[in-house]
Amino acid sequence: MSAPESVLFVGIGNMGWPMATRLLGAGFRVTVNDVVPGRSADFVQKIGGGAAEDLAAAAAQADVVITMLPTSKHVAEAVASLRAGLKQGQVLIDMSSGAPAATQAIAADLVPLGVIMLDAPVSGGVPRAVTGELAIMAGGDAAALDRVEPLLRAMGTTIHRIGGLGSGQAMKALNNLVSAGGFLIGIEALLIGQQFGIDPGLMTDVLNASTGMNNSTQKKFRQFVLSRQFNSGFGLDLMVKDLSIALEVARAAGVAAPFSNLCRELSASAQGLLGPGQDHTALAKLSEALAGIELKG
Fold it and tell me: Does residue 172 have an active-site annotation?
């Protein structure tokens, strides 16, 4: 089949907006849709492309449909709205951090239509979405991935082909599990060090020059925790969702994962303590509450 030229991008939130922008900049014809009233029109006014009010009608005009939504439930709802316009030969790429089993069920339902579904969640956050330097974890049919690779290359510098459909989402959830574990143990270390008398900022610098360095010590502690900004752009609610997916994968594989369970439970406890809509770096506040002290910038 010919290379895709037109894209329907469903979900232009914090991540979807810059990703769709990158596609436009790469020369693809992009139509966007979002559940937030006025957001699609705002995108067209500021960036370009077209706005889709009727998902099925827009899908009928697209070579590829991309979904970038909070959960697999939202993806399933979007696909239900798209379905009447989907046609033989199209590729649907779910770039959400979804649940592999749910994605596989959606894909099976699309087989009679001749639509191939791929999963391609991303890592790197909003800054790397803006620069087109996302890490993309792709799963699904190899030939379909070959066909859409130019689209993915417009959004990410590294594309990892993980395996069958759903494997990209499993990898993304496991990546976020490792990220959460590194964050939690790092915050505990800062709290211990502060009580001992070591400045948390200095500790962060030492960790970053030593074997304790990780993504959180490099890109989160000073920027969002010690600054008390807690505004990295990735929600705690989404983090808990991703950790829950990682545990679903563990259970399905029959792997005991006690530390993974602890990370998920601590994150869910923070979610309950702080309420909805919190940034995932606010997870530090739970550790502070348990220790009875607050980190100083």
Answer: yes
